[in-house]
Amino acid sequence: MQDSAPRIFVNDTTLRDGEQAPGVAFSFNEKLAIARALDAAGIDEIEAGTPAMGPDEIHTIAAIANANLSCAVMAWCRALEADVDAAIVAGVRRVNISVPASRIQMQVKLNANPAETAESLRRIVAYARDRDLEVAVGCEDSSRATPADLALLAHSAQDSGAFRIRYADTLGVLEPFGAYEAIRRLSEATDLAIEFHGHDDLGLATANTLAALRGGARHASVTVLGLGERAGNAPLEEIAVAAAQTGQYATHINISDLNDLAVLVADAAGRAIGETKAIVGRDIFSHESGVHVSGLLKDARAYQALDPAAFGRRHAIVIGKHSGLAAIRAICGDLGLDPEAETMALAEIRALAQRNKRAVPVDHARRIASAFQEILSARRADSRVWP
Ligand SMILES: [Zn+2]
User: Fold this and answer.
1) Of 241, 269, 297, which residue constitutes the final position of a domain?
2) Are residues 222 and 302 in the same domain?
3) Cα 17 to averaged position of ligand 1 atoms, centre (Å)
4) 343 C-alpha to center of ligand 1: Å?
5) How many C-alpha atoms does 40 have within 13 Å on its Cβ side?
6) Residues within 5 A (CB) of ion ligand 1
7) 138 CA distance to ligand 1 middle (Å)
8) Cα–Cα 20 to 30 A to 173, which of 145, 271, 353, 361?
């Protein structure tokens, strides 16, 4: 990370948007454990839940708010006094007040026009500020809002005492160039800090979040593993590592905590972590291709994107259809194979992987290599006896 890299703030909403993923329901203990793990990993802010959901949710948010975490704890509210009151009961000091920003959502959710929505926002932010809450304003469906409507909401939020505005790509319809332009435009319309909240419907949530940061956002809204509505959100682990790896942004995230955090959330969500999931997938440090393995064994930097040691992990050589002799030598170095045995073993291993359509376990590959070596040695012994 460059010393001059600007600091960005990572706001995690695994416990709110993440839990809105279909079929996901965290228990009280799971939520508290996730909150503590997020805090320990260096998250700046946790969106802990939605107090308006009722007493159980309020009880959970209160426990998180009282857990002596270093990070800020926020509750998600609609633009309703009852929601703000519920957040106060939960004991948080910070709320995100959400308003629709697109015309279609203003109409469907509030039956209101932009001026009426902006006025409602002004009133509810003032209501929360009067009760000593720190208020961030979330503009739902910002990506389908007109720039003028978004600027109007930003003015209302700023004038009434909010400290931040969230640009939510609620439906995940942005692409990175559009995200950059939209945030740049919004930053010209307001002095408020800008947070970007991206969804992954087009597989672009991470790219859009990075583009938004380039455009002037300083807060990234993320979830562990990208857990969230529909295709999910920008994954915490991807944003944190991309920030560090590119040297473009500084965060307080402990990269070495990301794996454990992913496992904790996946277990609580009842979801498997994809084998090739960026940053935390099982196979992301595994190599089979002969060309790659050969290069890695000579100098890991030849084919290393991320240093596995930074994540408490190691490169793994997978033996399969695309393996080369370098991999056979690497796993059989102690067997004293003749070059001919190596070549024969490689051919057999490749054929086996092709037939079974899967990798060959290292132990099995070693047994194959040993068997060929024995055959060769026996033949040689025979030829000495019977020249
Ligand atoms: Zn969302």
Assistant:
1) 269
2) no
3) 6
4) 54
5) 13
6) 17
7) 10
8) 271
